[in-house]
Amino acid sequence: MLYLSTRGHPDRKHFCDILLEGLAPDGGLYLPEHYPQIDDAKLTQLRKAYHEQGYAELAFQILSLYIDDIPAADLKALCAKTYTAEVFGTGEIVPLRHLENSLWLEALSNGPTLAFKDMAMQLLGNLFEYELKRRGEQLNILGATSGDTGSAAEYAMRGKKGIRVFMTSPHGRMSPFQQAQMFSLQDENIHNIAIEGVFDDCQDIVKAVSNDLEFKRKYKIGTVNSINWARLLAQVVYYFAGYIQATEHPAPTLGTGVSSLPPEGADSPRGGPSANPNDQKVSFTVPSGNFGNICAGHVARMMGLPIDKLVVATNENDVLDEFFRTGVYRVRGSADTHETSSPSMDISKASNFERFVFDLLGRNGQRTKALFSAALQTYGRFDLSAEPLFADAAGKYGFESGKSTHADRLATIRDTYSRFGVTIDTHTADGVKVAREHRGDGSVPMIVLETALPIKFAETIQEALGHAPERPDRFAGIEALPKRVQVMPADVELVKAYIERHCQ
Length: 504
Known about the structure:
Blueprint: E1 3-5, H1 15-21, E2 30-32, H2 40-53, H3 55-64, H4 72-82, H5 85-88, E3 96-100, E4 103-107, H6 117-135, E5 139-144, H7 148-157, E6 163-170, H8 176-183, E7 190-196, H9 199-211, H10 213-218, E8 221-222, H11 229-246, E9 282-287, H12 292-303, E10 307-314, H13 319-326, E11 328-330, H14 353-360, H15 365-379, E12 381-383, H16 392-395, E13 399-403, H17 406-420, H18 426-438, E14 446-450, H19 458-465, E15 486-489, H20 492-501
Parallel strand pairs: 4-14, 5-6, 5-8, 6-7, 7-15, 9-10, 9-14, 10-13
Antiparallel strand pairs: 1-2, 3-4, 11-12
Helix pairs in contact: 2-3, 3-4, 3-11, 4-6, 6-7, 6-11, 11-12, 17-18, 17-19
């Protein structure tokens, strides 16, 4: 399998090369030359693997379709090392929880940092360590986070041989718990840089450094943000796991939680004993600001997974919702980026969105480059509303969108708790609110990706419910621990100088 740039660079590269590289030389994002196709027989095989051997085997089989430069036995061992009950708190890894009618929650937040980013980052850390050892090289990871990416990356990379992490974040804009998770780490290979600005200032710094090819090569700069294809690929797996579970679980009585699978030979949840569960479509609603998490769903759908709708749920920073409603992609400045109670989605420039636009435009690299380089730099926006292909976003690719506000968030958290005894975090609340607006007649299961545990946003949970959310014992008193963080202006050269000093 070879990979190409969304901006038309002629080079084609193998998986392990782009794993360490991040951005393409022309500033584009990597995608496979083609999406491997999953037919009925293959989907049945994946079901069998998931049920008989678990999530790690499912991950291995899906990743194997995209990775041909790591020996199969090694890749299988890396997946088995990553996806364990010890790391993710449950052997199911990503269990489904029934909420109401056709609505389900897929738990992606049982990992070390209590957020969905762990699902990919734990694998990425093991892949990095494996490949660097194989090459005898080192890697300096430069990342940007609005909350969860940073902690997930740092917990996955801490203590890894040959790896340093330089993680930028918007100063004062993450929740106290999120800041404490990152800044309390004292590992020598972990460096936190708090940027005086918003998340997009951090992301711009990462891209600027990555585009300085001389600096990038000299200091072996890599990325863990969703601009890294390997991270996105790891996220594709949980769409398959969610689909498999949703098409085999009959919907239980309201509020009773996940039911067990029907006994062998029993009628399927869709009707008769001969019904093929692979014929059932499933929809997903994904809280997202940078598009990476739902882009993984797009990849799964392009592979042939029977996904009906992919619903993007945004907060007050509704860049993506505006595009899918109007065809206008409009970048917000710092002053127009709202500070919200779902802060990990406080993003005004959805850089990962480039991958979908590349597909939407028939994989035309030159057109994609003109939009994401020239048009955004000149005008801060582009408009595809008059583009005939824009209709394909919904019609061909299944995308819909919606928006949630602070008041919506509070109401959804209260409703979910009072009716079902389930406490959800602020981002998942955005997802549930929007999912209810888009699930249709209920014949198609709707899965909301549960992106974090509520403790990460305790202040808002307290506001909504009048009491604090449950806190895992291992994070008791984390906010009071000593902090290790460097605050600096949003200046590319200052960040580069900081990297230079710590790579001596």
